[in-house]
Amino acid sequence: MIFMKDNIVTVEHLSFTYKDSEEPAVKDVSFSIPKGTWTTLVGHNGSGKSTIARLLNGILLPDDNPETLINIDGITLTEKTMWDIRDRVGIVFQNPDNQFVGATVEDDVAFGLENRQVPRPKMKSIVQDVLNQVGMTNFQKSEPQYLSGGQKQRVAIAGILAIGPKLIILDESTSMLDPAGKFKILKLIRKLQKENELTIFSITHDINEAEHADQILVLDKGSLLASDSPVDIFKDVSLIKNAGLDLPLFYKIKNKLINKGISIPQEVNTEEKLVKYLCQLNSKM
Ligand SMILES: Nc1ncnc2c1ncn2[C@@H]1O[C@H](COP(=O)(O)OP(=O)(O)OP(=O)(O)O)[C@@H](O)[C@H]1O
Q1: Structure confidence by residue, pLDDT tens digits, 70-129
Q2: In angstroms, what is the span from residue 51 Cα to ligand 1's centroid?
Q3: Is the Cβ atom of 96 under 6 angstroms away from ligand 1?
Q4: Terminus-to-terminus CA distance in the chain, angstroms?
Q5: pLDDT tens figures, 134-172
Q6: For 17-136, where are the E strands, in sequence order?
Q7: Rounded Cα–Cα distance for residues 23 and 196 (Å)
Q8: Where would I find the ABC transporter domain in this sequence?
Q9: To the nearest whole number, what is the mean pLDDT of the chain?
Q10: Atom 17 in ligand 1: which residue has the minimum CA distance?
């Protein structure tokens, strides 16, 4: 097997069937994720997204098949390499309350470092650094359960960052936040990804969130329907419909305008820019 040097994740022929289930939850899925990029796995409820997240760090093990491969950062996932993989892959779940273990924010963020027997002075400096990166320095003595939903997610992300993972999986981790909170966390993730050269694999049923990614994987009933850039994925309206999803608002409006013969320049690629462009067009008429 030859791995593409620039892919941090290579998945081939991945299938998984839950015990007592007749139908596989994940069916012969193959994809790769280039290092330092953001990939979003999108699919409706029950399409198999969380199962794939759990397979990627060995919480679940794939169905037996000699052709199946999960390779992360050059390490092929087996029962033996599971702990090496877990050091490289951090998962932030939907409900951060289930992840907190420390009485205070700083204790919580330090937890993974304590487990890895990191010396105290180094631990303190890492905790300060990651709390600073997620904008939570002022809350280090707070009890995690009394924080807002967005603040809790920041602390959960800091705890994962502290371990120094190569890949961060975000499993519906903004789904409990209001739109403004969601946007702030997505912006933070993009910032962290760029500053730390991290690879992000986010999982969502919210198609609007998928717009932020470099690559989108579309999952339906356990099968991968497509993998491409957001622009190319959202060109294919029938693909999105077949996956039981809806187009993001920006693409809906853009497609309607194109159908009415109004061409939209490529650089007009956000709702904000589209509104500005239409106002300019209107003032010229
Ligand atoms: N522990 C389990 N035992 C048996 N079946 C399961 C288990 N967990 C999930 N499933 C089934 O596997 C399929 C995929 O579930 P999964 O949670 O991966 O989907 P999902 O896309 O993450 O859904 P959601 O968006 O609702 O979280 C579903 O049919 C689900 O009912």
Answers
A1: 999 999 999 899 988 988 999 988 888 888 888 899 999 999 999 889 999 999 999 999
A2: 6
A3: no
A4: 59
A5: 999 999 999 999 999 899 999 999 999 999 999 999 998
A6: 26-34, 38-42, 69-72, 75-76, 89-92
A7: 40
A8: 9-246
A9: 90
A10: 50
- CA 269, 275, 280, 285: dihedral to nearest 10 degrees? 120
- Indicate if ligand 1 lies below 6 Å from the C-beta of 50: yes
Nearest CA-CA partner of 216 in 37, 6, 51, 16: 37
CA distance 202 to 189: 10
The interface predicted TM-score of the complex, written ipTM, equals 0.97
Look at residues 57, 46, 60, 45 and name the one whose alpha carbon lies nearest to residue 15: 60
Residue among 14, 15, 19, 21 to mutate when testing ligand 1 (max atoms within 8 A of CB): 21
- Cβ(68) – ligand 1 distance below 6 Å: no
Task: Round the CA-based radius of gyration of the chain to a whole number and report it.
Answer: 20
List, for residues 178-232, the tens digit of each pLDDT value: 878 888 888 888 888 888 889 999 999 888 888 889 999 999 999 999 999 988 8
Query: Which domains does the chain possess?
Result: 7-245 (3.40.50.300), 248-285 (no CATH)
